[in-house]
Amino acid sequence: MAGFETIFGTLSLTQGSEYKYMNDNNETCIDAKMDVLFTLSNGNGTVKFDGNDFTVKSGDCANEGEYQAVLNLGNSNEDLLALTFNTQPDLSVNMSSMFIFAPFEFFPGTPIATATNLLDTGDLKFGSNTQLYQCESTQRMTLTGELEGTTYTMNMDMSNVQIQAFNIKNGNLSIDVFVCSADQMTTVAQETTKATSEPTQPTTEPSASNVTTEQTTVEPSNVTSGAPTSAPPIPPFPPKSRYEVTENKIVCLIMEGSFQLKVTYTTKDNKTASTIVVVPVSSNVIVTGTCASGNENSSSLTIRPKDGEIKSLTFNFEIMNGKSNLISWFVDVKIPDAMECKYQQSDLNYSVTDKVELSSPKLYYKCDKGGNISDSALAFMYRDLKVQAFNLEDEKFSENGVYCEADFGPIPVPGCSSVNIYSVLSGNNTCVVFKGSIQFYIPYISKTGITTEVISLPAVYNVSGKCNTTLNGLYSQQMVIRFYDAWILTIYFSSDKHQETDPFTAEAGVDNYISQIELKYDYNNVLYKDAVDSILGKEMSVVAPNLNKLTTNYNKSYKCKKETTIRLQNGLSMVTKDLQYQAFKTGQSADFSTAVNCERDEDDKHYLLYIAIGAAVGGCLLVVVVLVTVHVINKRRKYEQLTL
Asked: Could you list the residue range(s) of the whole structural domain that residue 614 is in?
């Protein structure tokens, strides 16, 4: 999985950090134990710290029938590490991570600015939601984010991991253990080593300065003959670069991104090795290729580095069945310790012919999170990829394009919207807590006409906000949720206290409410499967101002289990369910105060009460019960006709 990898070798890790979260019965509902080392970088400097300084700040247990659990950890810098556990449709569990921090706390000289968020580039997959996850091998989650033009990366290296976030019975971890694949492979490799009479010979060939090599003895079963005691560091991806093909001084093909190659080969001492080779940036290469003109349907791009291991790297594109495809790619690379033969002499020629469908020929293809295209011996690994091989507009990418699914993360199953918890923090204090499922009903132009797509807010998201701001002169708070790559939902909560005349105090009897909702979204091929090409990639924005919805008191939360619809602009609607929120909170607790129930929920209580009374009295009052039921149904219909 992109962004998640098993790291072989020895790391200096803290010992035995354990984080537990208790439910209302004071029983453990989330238990995470691990040795963990964090490596945070801003591209110029690196800071390392471990898990000893982190403590449990808050969380959310998964009750029966719920599919998400959250564990929030904090440290002395008031940073927040959020671990979110989600049960998938196959009942397996994924763990995602988010790190919120202020860069100036770690990197002296960095301008003091608001905190930024780092999100993992790939989730960690556990076993089923009834199992204890266990992994002694070192594993890594990589988190990235950007603030004011600086990209921050944090590696989270974990070993001796034991985690369970669901179905902990009476505070006891499950005896059914899911062992990670890295441990399983190590066990098999050790057993294979014991049965082998010939020991593995250490390599004596030095590697080139920018090549990383992992070697194993060739076995018929493709199982390593023993886990190596150490491994050289994996080279980082190079800076993003732009490679252009020109014809008659006109740019006709553009490919952007950060690229690496992973080459598997046979060494001189008959071992199997894997080597990572970095593709140089455009200033250190010569780019050539062919353009498609007229009725031609093929083009190509060739990168020839001025020095280094790669001699040439070629990509061939072709229009097939109305789609732009990468139909093959080829690399000529020199590996210092590769087996030499009469025709090879350590230069390896690889050609991959598996077709990869990209987009319509009139659109660009984009994949920021990255991925790889590979066969058994060769992998092309990329990040920040953007490519268009046909129909450039004025020597630039077209206005519209399609995205890879990796940029969007997990998408809820149709008809299934996860119940998430969003918290806005100021230091150690929580000022807003919002729980519920959120869906958007968005009209768009499909290939069959105008239709509406239901977009659910996913279980993977990024939350920020402000605990002290104003809106229309009123004291307000702001919650910002980022999801699906470029989507941003902003909700304002306002009080009825005016900034110019009223002091800001949390007084009983003072109301607060949702006062404004903004949604920035786009039309993309992942969420809108049948959208017309002319709208793909377009970014949109709607605002619903001057609202006065879902009112509650300063010292109480608002709760509504039934669906609540809020009309936005341009025919868009936001629908919530199982909603509970509280703004203008004080203190560190993320728990809700006493709830004010919405009228629909209260009606249901009365409805059930009437039926219970009717059943108790007996059949002689059946007519009365029917009349009461009809009255309540009519009352509910009137409520449903109200537009929030």
From this structure: 601-641
